Amino acid sequence: MAESTRFSSGETFGRYVVESLLGEGGMGEVYRALDTRLGRKVALKVLRKDGDLSEDAWAHEASRMLREARAAAALSHAGIVAIYDVGELDGTAFIAMEIAEGEPLRALVGGDAADARKIQILHDVARALAAAHQAGLVHRDVKPENIVVSRAGTVKVLDFGIARGLDRETDPGARTLEAEPAESLFHGTPAYTAPEQLTGEALDARTDQFGWGVVAHELFEGELPFRADKGPAALMSSILADEPRPMNRAPEAIRALVKRALAKDPADRFPSMTVLADELALLSIEPEPEPTPLPPAAARVSATRALALVAVLAALAAAAWFLFRREKPVDSAPVAPTPSAAPLVRIAITDLPLPTTDNPEALVAYREGVQAVRDASWTTARFAFDRARKADPSLALAHLRYAMVAMDSEDLNASREAYRVAFLLRSSLSDRDRSLLDALEPFLQRDPPDVAEMRRRFADLSARYPGDAELVYWEFFPIPQRKPADLLAFTERCLALDDRYADCLQIQARALIALGRHEEARRALDRCVEVAPTAGDCMFDRAAVEIMSNRCVGLEEVTRSWVAREPDLGRAHSYLACSLYGQGRENAAVRAVVDTATQKLRASGFQVEALTLDFGFAAGTGDFESALRIARQTGVVGDIDHEAGPTAKHVFLLIELGRTEDAGRVAQDFLARQTASLRSGTMDCTVDPEPSFYAAAHRAGLLSEAERASHRESWIRRCVQEGDAAGAWYGAYALPATTPDEAREALAAMPSRPSLPEGLPYYRARSAAALRGKVRFLAGDMDGALPDLVEASSHCGMLLDPVHYLQNQHRLGVARETRGEKDLACEAYRSVLSRWGAAKDSITARDVARRAKALGCESRPGP
């Protein structure tokens, strides 16, 4: 391979125009260059012959590095620098790669960054290495210089240039690359070298684990774990014989992990980087303060839920290190300065630059999608971006925006797949949109989604582009569990940048509703519809205001207007059906609207929502066999992440029918199939049915009391960790309770003030009231239950959850009856009998019929 001098600015190397030198080392230089064919900036690594190596040794090293670079280039991941091109030109080997923005981890070593941030970095590094190992690569040079932390928080592991393939005999589960001969040269940076590297033994994935341990020790303590002050020989001896220096600044849990990772014998380390990463994910260094105290059994928080990140590693090739041969470290990771913050220019989403495409149809569809996002019509936007990406499959921004709007749909997998395509095409994205891609990674590429990390990245990104209205919106996504006061401040920021951003008007209204300011909320929603007549989300919330105000006639007016605006929108028809059912219209009239709604929902891909509405009508009219048949179809949809709600309705109906064993089997089957993403921070703990499933399985004899209690404690810890301590009581105790004993247990565990977290979605308030009322009712406290039972009955959305609504009406009637309020009790009983009067299998209906007869209630038509 030819030796040559450095390139100067402006020189060409094949299709690359050199702009500047980024770094150099013993095996070549790294340049910032322009790829003239694709019009993108790259880091161009040019490999040059080491003067101390023979021609044969150099040829072997260069060949190996290029071979491993090609293997690494086949991988892709949002947090990893991508390899664009690998080859030789005029006898000179080169590697063209993405430029990594940020700073090496070395800048944080021994610094005052929060422990939680350091742990997150180490966790991300471990996940990246785990993915490389699964793909058949061992890094062998894990060190702070090979880890870059971007301003947005993305962690990237660099320099797979000395990586080697795993030998299948060493790691049978790994994909085998061409293994390196045992007698080949030692590679790696001395201070981060594992004992087996020094002694020439066979290497496997646990070698990288040792390097990770050195990095972790140094990150927290600011010094290496082994003596490096007396030269190479002393360092080698220390690594082979000495115990690591004690860690004094790191949390105790981290010390234990690092100690095991630094074990001399690989067999004493963690079985894999995946196991180590899972241990890191369980750490809780800075637990969230609990807004509402829970009883001691429920309040203990010792761990977070484990993250199972969906990741594949795209590694990059760069310079090799030889033991003690270099006096200065190789600057092998091309790190570009982080861009400065953009000037404050008010930018609406429709003002952002359009992507470049030669396909007019794709551009028209993309424009339509962007306008639909601004108009809070995400369903319309999803179809538009889907058309755009199909018209031009290379349009990265269309794939990215489809992924963003599909996050709110039933099919999260479709969103994730679109994200992966966008990532592969990311070289065509602007700096702003690449940062947007990075910010979404924790939600769309981790299982369960890491909401907290996504929010942190968007906060950083919004600070970099302070005039960008869209980034302000995503800084607060997802909206549930945000405090209303915070949301109002957020909407002020958003609307100051774009006063026609319908989503921000909608969120403003939701915050006002949560604060009980309904008239102001109506005005905000009216403004939303005014600026965006097709704003489906604003119409949805406008309808929700009528539901929560128990204005079924008003709901009919709003939904008929909504249907006129968007006749093909299934959700508009479903809420029209709710208004008719709430007013007691004839079943045939309600059925006709339900059929229209479900047809349109299915046509739009909302299969689970259609089944839920069908189930609601059947259960709400006492046709329980049809309701059970519909409930059994939920699994056919094949989207386990959206089965939790419908499955809960199935279980609760079986309990209502006295079929305890069947309810337990359905619950147990779901628990066996559920995925980690169901347990993400996006679930509202107040109505999360997971503890109810464990309770149902326990009642059916499928779980012991100890197992049920253990699952409940684990679930409570997750909720508290996610900042929903108040909601935890509702989901863990109140929702599952069906007997007096369970109700008394729930009351014993009830916080002194069983209020809701401030940011709880306003439409859950009556669900929470129903749960409080139910628990007190079952425990025999009729006077205490009555206010909550009244509040829970004051809405007209009962078609969406008729079983719980009618059970609540039964309890309300009994509470009224015990107070001697016959007329009001009969009114509640008639509400049940008008819908379930002929349903002989219903426990509730039978008791209501008996009580109404004994009380002498007159039969009247209607609800």
UniProtKB/TrEMBL annotation:
The keyword Membrane does not apply. Coiled coil: none annotated. The keyword ATP-binding applies. ATP binds at K45. Residues 16-283 form the Protein kinase domain. It comes from the Bacteria. GO terms for molecular function: ATP binding; protein serine/threonine kinase activity. InterPro entries: Kinase-like_dom_sf, Prot_kinase_dom, Protein_kinase_ATP_BS, Ser/Thr_kinase_AS, TPR-like_helical_dom_sf, TPR_rpt. SUPFAM superfamilies: Protein kinase-like (PK-like), TPR-like. Keywords: ATP-binding, Kinase, Nucleotide-binding, Transferase. This is Protein kinase.
